Structure formats: structure tokens, C-alpha cells
Amino acid sequence: MTPMSFPGSLSIGRDAAVGTILNSTSQNPGASASNVTCTIQQNTTVNGTVVAGNPKTYQTNVDGIGVRFYITSGWNGGWEQAPTTSSFTVTSGSTAHYVRADLVVTGPISGGTITILPSMTISFTGPCINTLTVTETLVTGTMVTGQACSVTTPAVTVTMQKVAPSDLPSVGATAGNTAFSLGLNCAAGAKVNVTLTDALNPTNQSNILTIGGDSAASGVGLRVLFGSSPVSYGPASPLAGTSNQWSVGTASGGAMTVPLIAQYVRTSATLQMGRVSGKALFTMSYQ
């Protein structure tokens, strides 16, 4: 049986969502039937180590990369995931059976060369066929590269301009727009996402940053904008789909900046002048 193979190299976002299919390969394991009618027993076993908490997904030697095997459900039917045991009826006509292997994301990807892969053993028995047992193997050697970035501005201090109470005449009014940016150096193709977290109130999911205890002012908050849109805060997690995570775009390779704007926003009818401070954390995710 000719081994199935994945591409020689794959470039993947380091924080790609668990379950993402990176590549699929399939073939006929040599099982076919013509002009017969009978019931066939099918059994598949997977030779490998199951990924913890991820049933029917099997480890490779590269962190964050696993394999799932599938086999045709009945002759020319849909796919069912191995390991499995089933029986089905072959009716008159020409039919064939297929197997498939998917390379999938199981967690944060470290990158490296895949040298250890699981295999799947299949057996067919029935009164109208000769017993067939085959083991489907996969070719090792795929080089996995994580598309990632390095942060060139790990800490950014934004000095806001002074504003007068008259610049914030009513609740919801904004003033003092101050531009700043986050700096990155990214591999080409990395899909960059960002989450801002309120350092003083990590559960805050609004778009107004909690002001610090050393702030003398009241009735005012701080807001960050990406483009013209206020950014809402979320948890400090790089996982895909994190609440209020937002996309910066796809890196072309090399230096990259994320332009942002900080502004004051009036939050109550009573406004007290004084110093305002706040602190936010940013988490990058490369998917």
C-alpha cells in the first residue's frame, strides 16, 4: 500500500484555532466490489497516542499538530472518523471504499519537522469478499513553520494632551485625540489579531478604560480607537475567538505597525477636572 502524504512544508498561524484542518490526503485502500450483494464487516484501529481531551485525534512529534483518520461510511458513502466498527450491505454494481487523513491543529504550534505520525489499520470481512487487512501509513518529513510576529514595542506610554471641561460638554462627548501605535515584525502571511485588556478591571468588556486610583478627575474615561471604531476590552488570551479580539490584517512580512488613537470620553453629568491615567495590556494572536 502506497503511503499517503502531506505537503513537504506548511506555514501556519501560531495561534490557529484548535480543530483547524491544515491539509487532507485520501486514497482507495484496495477495497472494491462488483456485481455482488452481501453484508460486510468493517473495523478500523488507529496506531498512535490520543491527544489529551481530543478523542480520535492522534499526536505527532510537533506540538500543536495532530492527525485524524476517516473511512468511507458504507460503499461510496460519507466519512466516519476512525477508530470505528460497523457493518454495511454491498448491493449489485461497482463500488469502492476510501480512507482519508487530516492534519489538524491541536493547540499552540511550536513548528518543526514531523517525524512521528500515527497509522490506521483497516480490515474487511464478509461472505462475498476475501478478508482484506491493510495498514494506511503517512509519509514523514513535513516541515511546519509557525507564522508569528515579534513585538517591537513591548511597552507604550501615551501622553494625552490637556483639555478643558468645555471640550467635553455632555455625556458621550470625546476630545484630546492622541495617536500612538504598536510595533511588530511579522512573517509574511501571518494573520494578526489583537486583544486589549483593562489592567485595572480585567473583566471589563466595554470600550471605556477604567481610570487609575491616582486620577484626580472624575466623570471622564479613556477610550482607544482602531481606525474610527472604539476598541472593546477582553481577556488577555491569544486563543482564536477570544471576546473582543479584533483583526489587524495579514502581514506582508517585516516591520508592521498597528495605528491607534487614545481619547477622553465624558461618562457622567458631573465632571471634575484633574489628572487622568489608565493602563491597558495588549495580547497578540497570529492565526
| Largest sheet composition | 6 strands, antiparallel
Class based on secondary structure composition and strand pairing: mainly beta
Total count of domains? 2
Overall outline: elongated
SSE succession: EEEEEEEEEEEEEEEEEEEEEEE
Q: Architecture of the largest domain in CATH?
A: Sandwich
CATH class group of the largest domain: Mainly Beta
Distance between the termini: 36 Å
- Write down the Rg: 28 Å
Description:
- By secondary structure, the chain is mostly beta strands.
- The chain has 2 domains: 9-147, Immunoglobulin-like; 149-286, Sandwich (Immunoglobulin-like), CATH 2.60.40.1090.
- It is built from no helices and 23 strands.
- The strands form 6 sheets. Strands 2, 5, 6, 7, 8 and 11 form a 6-stranded antiparallel beta sheet that branches. A 5-stranded antiparallel beta sheet has the order 16-17-22-19-20, with no helix packed on it.
- Strand 6 and strand 7 form a beta hairpin.
- It is elongated, with a radius of gyration of 28 Å.
- The two termini are 36 Å apart.
